[in-house]
Design a protein that fits this description.
Blueprint (H helix, E strand, L loop, with lengths): L1 H6 L5 H21 L1 E9 L2 E6 L3 E6 L13 E7 L2 E7 H4 L12 E9 L2 E9 L1 E9 L3 E2 L13 E7 L2 E6 L1 H4 L2 H16 L2
Length: 193
């Protein structure tokens, strides 16, 4: 077997595949280290960010229809151009108290992909700040402890102007399966009362 490998010409197909794989890996690493754009927003006095590619639009808070027997973090649904879009109160989702509605409160409509399905979900935030670029080299891994939210909700900690911005793993935060399970538990608990 080693005899065959030694007799193969230096520019053969195996080396070409290896070079292509190495080039693809290098391009992927460069893209990861390159700046990515994030929408930043305030929630409970803390700065959070979501990848701008997930953001569909930002709308004024209002016209929310409450749904009975839902967990406290599901504030209701809105009619967005004929589509029913659930609205999640992120503060309550993170285990805190429900958000208080203020002048700058708004709903950020996010597109979440899970497998072959795409869902539009609204998140309630205290205020939208700005769109910023954070290079991959300026993003630290999520802390294993000490955060006020679940570690699996955090994609990373972006360093911006000497402070940390919590970059959310929006697929985990807005997991349709987990939210459906929690809603079913709330419904079951309500029927036992």
């Amino acid at each position: 077997m080693t005899q065959i490998a030694q007799n193969r010409p230096a520019g053969g197909p195996v080396n070409a595949l290896a070079r292509q794989a190495a080039a693809a890996l290098e391009a992927h690493q460069a893209a990861a280290d390159g700046p990515q754009q994030y929408l930043t927003f305030l929630l409970g006095g803390e700065m959070f960010a979501v990848a701008i590619l997930n953001v569909k639009e930002i709308i004024e808070y209002g016209n929310l229809t409450e749904i009975p027997m839902m967990p406290p973090f599901i504030r209701g649904v809105i009619n967005l151009r004929g589509s029913v879009v659930p609205v999640i109160d992120l503060a309550a989702r993170f285990g805190g108290a429900e958000s208080q509605i203020g002048k700058r409160s708004c709903i950020v409509i996010l597109e979440v992909s899970e497998g072959d399905f795409r869902h539009d979900i609204g998140i309630m935030v205290d205020a939208v700040s700005e769109v910023i670029e954070i290079p991959g080299s300026e993003i630290e891994p999520p802390p294993s402890f000490g955060a006020r939210i679940r570690a699996d909700f955090i994609q990373g900690m972006g360093k911006v102007a000497g402070r940390f911005v919590i970059i959310l793993n929006i697929v985990r935060v807005l997991s349709v399966d987990e939210i459906a399970t929690l809603a079913a538990l709330a419904d079951h608990a309500g029927s036992n009362v």
